[in-house]
TrEMBL record:
<feature type="domain" description="Major facilitator superfamily (MFS) profile">
    <location>
        <begin position="237"/>
        <end position="439"/>
    </location>
</feature>
<keyword id="KW-0813">Transport</keyword>
<feature type="transmembrane region" description="Helical">
    <location>
        <begin position="374"/>
        <end position="392"/>
    </location>
</feature>
<keyword id="KW-1003">Cell membrane</keyword>
<feature type="transmembrane region" description="Helical">
    <location>
        <begin position="304"/>
        <end position="322"/>
    </location>
</feature>
<feature type="transmembrane region" description="Helical">
    <location>
        <begin position="241"/>
        <end position="262"/>
    </location>
</feature>
<protein>
    <submittedName>
        <fullName>MFS transporter</fullName>
    </submittedName>
</protein>
<feature type="transmembrane region" description="Helical">
    <location>
        <begin position="178"/>
        <end position="198"/>
    </location>
</feature>
<keyword id="KW-0472">Membrane</keyword>
<dbReference type="InterPro" id="IPR036259">
    <property type="entry name" value="MFS_trans_sf"/>
</dbReference>
<dbReference type="Pfam" id="PF05977">
    <property type="entry name" value="MFS_3"/>
</dbReference>
<dbReference type="InterPro" id="IPR020846">
    <property type="entry name" value="MFS_dom"/>
</dbReference>
<keyword id="KW-1133">Transmembrane helix</keyword>
<feature type="transmembrane region" description="Helical">
    <location>
        <begin position="398"/>
        <end position="418"/>
    </location>
</feature>
<keyword id="KW-0812">Transmembrane</keyword>
<feature type="transmembrane region" description="Helical">
    <location>
        <begin position="328"/>
        <end position="353"/>
    </location>
</feature>
<feature type="transmembrane region" description="Helical">
    <location>
        <begin position="274"/>
        <end position="292"/>
    </location>
</feature>
Length: 439
């Protein structure tokens, strides 16, 4: 590390002073707006594409699993080198480029679908291209925020961004479900194209100047990748968090591959009702984002992580329970919504705590590679989970596979429950491996 000069950010204007809301930080507002627009478009796309696959292309459980795998395959394929590449790039330019690529890919899907040439291989290819762009966007985004707002505002910044994501998850599926009653899925994707373009325009207005490291100080890519991966795996708390998140994402992808099939075919709900379920679920995410800072103060920054991890399998169990409960007269729509609200609330509380922790504990020069390493380890299992969900759905059935996902979520909590996090009120900062305060 001594041979590499860290990336230096010269923000204009300076990060918001301690105690002042980031609402007054002009550059953060531009990032916030851009992220909100992109999140809204992503939610429209996340509804339109699988509905199109199931309702128009008559996709099977295996095909839905393959589509889910393609949507995150790039995190497994290029997740590690992406961090080293991002550390060599201007992160604002990376964000803009990723938005433009995603807009272009979806525009192609719209044209292909409207001309009658759509097929599952076309959707697979589009999902792969989108996932590659998303790898670079997510790694750059999480590495950009600390230099943009300063370390004292990380929790606030992550909470605001998570809240915006939750609002988009509420508005997007509900709006999409209503629009799908009068528009085709390809026409709904046009809205996603517009939002990605608008996101790129907003991020392009950020004034913070980034100074790139001297190219002569670069070392072989494999050495830079190894630094980020080694930092993550050697940190005693971070590796436990990564293990929990990775197993959780594997399990969630098993369930996510079959969710649209489950709702539309097994439970017999409509596309509009699916949108209502997704929007109601996302309301839980908004609740979690709003409450995350307060819960961290009440229970402690460390303890809130295993607490949230323990509650996610309990909440998700309501999803497969909707099937037998519906046979007794309990409305499936209500059960699904209740489970979704609770599940997403705990997921967001967990995410705000662990993302803020890893941003704070990592040296600035390693942020891109650390975030990429974490994404590789926790998102890499997602395409495997998608494929596994498709296979299990074909052989075990949809509902038994959803119960497999519940068991996986319970297993995911073990690494953080059986850890010192239970005793920690304050998580360590850079260069620390033990907390400043325990109870």
């Amino acid at each position: 590390m001594s041979a590499e000069q860290p990336e230096v950010a010269a923000p204009v204007p300076l990060p918001a002073p301690p105690g002042r809301s980031l609402v007054h930080h002009a550059d953060f507002r531009r990032l916030w707006l851009g992220d909100g627009l992109g999140q809204l478009g992503a939610q429209l796309g996340n509804l339109a594409i699988p509905v199109f696959a199931v309702a128009t292309l008559d996709a099977t459980a295996w095909q839905m699993g393959a589509l889910t795998a393609a949507e995150s395959a790039a995190f497994l394929a290029i997740g590690l080198p992406a961090g080293a590449w991002v550390d060599r790039m201007r992160k604002r330019s990376t964000l803009i480029s990723a938005d433009l690529v995603r807009a272009a890919v979806l525009a192609v899907v719209v044209v292909v679908a409207l001309t009658g040439h759509a097929s599952m291989p076309v959707l697979y290819a589009a999902a792969l291209a989108m996932s590659a762009a998303t790898v670079f966007f997510d790694v750059a985004y999480q590495s950009y925020l600390p230099g943009l707002v300063g370390p004292t505002h990380l929790v606030q910044g992550n909470s605001l961004l998570q809240a915006t994501q939750s609002v988009a998850q509420i508005a997007g599926p509900a709006l999409g479900g209503l629009l799908l009653r009068v528009l085709s899925a390809p026409m709904l994707l046009v809205g996603t194209v517009v939002t990605y373009l608008s996101s790129a325009a907003s991020v392009s207005r950020i004034r913070m100047v980034e100074q790139l490291p001297d190219p002569s100080s670069r070392r072989p890519l494999r050495h830079e990748i190894a630094e980020g991966l080694t930092f993550v795996l050697r940190h005693p708390l971070l590796r436990r968090v990564v293990a929990c998140t990775g197993i959780s994402n594997l399990s969630s992808s098993i369930a996510g591959a079959l969710l649209v099939l489950y709702v539309l075919r097994e439970l017999g709900l409509t596309e509009a009702q699916l949108g209502v379920v997704l929007s109601a679920s996302a309301a839980g995410g908004l609740l979690g984002a709003v409450a995350s800072s307060r819960l961290a103060r009440w229970f402690g920054e460390g303890r809130v992580i295993p607490l949230a991890a323990l509650m996610t399998p309990v909440a998700w169990a309501l999803v497969p329970l909707a099937d037998p409960l519906a046979r007794t007269g309990v409305p499936a729509l209500g059960v699904l919504a209740a489970g979704g609200v609770a599940f997403y609330a705990f997921v967001v509380v967990y995410n705000v705590a662990q993302v803020s922790f890893r941003q704070r504990v990592c040296p600035p020069a390693l942020l891109g590679r650390m975030n990429a390493s974490v994404r590789f380890l926790v998102w890499g299992p997602m395409p495997i989970g998608g494929l596994l969900g498709g296979v299990l759905g074909e052989h075990l059935g949809v509902v038994p596979t959803l119960w497999v996902a519940v068991a996986g979520l319970a297993l995911a909590a073990v690494p953080v429950v059986a850890s010192p996090l239970w005793r920690m009120r304050t998580l360590p900062g850079p260069g620390e491996t033990t907390p400043a305060q325990t109870v």
